[in-house]
């Protein structure tokens, strides 16, 4: 298997389910060390649970990869404490943060098993989190 990301550290928001989960698993398959950030909310929004992120971390570790879960909310443009904690966690446990990926943008309409997807109200994580993380890093 190719190791395109060997020894790189990636931080992926929304990595507990859906496309974020798939990003996390693929980066791990490619040799990256992964910070799995997820609030564990329901697909339609609201709620919080650590289970989804921990399950992805367990799956990565079971396959021989390195991963750590993070549950900080990085959507608040006015308060970057959560994003800063997430990056510091990457540095302490995975030796630095080199790549970032924000994947939350859509949710299935009509609950589980829905055949169509709808875009939720604008999700603050998608446009602001990457900009804030890059800005904080400078």
From TrEMBL:
Belongs to the short-chain dehydrogenases/reductases (SDR) family. Residues 99-118 are annotated as: Disordered. Keywords: Oxidoreductase. The keyword GTP-binding does not apply. One of its GO terms (molecular function) is oxidoreductase activity. This is Uncharacterized protein. It comes from Cupriavidus necator. InterPro entries: NAD(P)-bd_dom_sf (IPR036291), Peroxisomal_Beta-Oxidation (IPR051687), SDR_fam (IPR002347). Pfam families: adh_short. It comes from the Bacteria. The lineage of its organism: Bacteria, Pseudomonadati, Pseudomonadota, Betaproteobacteria, Burkholderiales. PANTHER family: DEHYDROGENASES, SHORT CHAIN, SCP2 DOMAIN-CONTAINING PROTEIN.
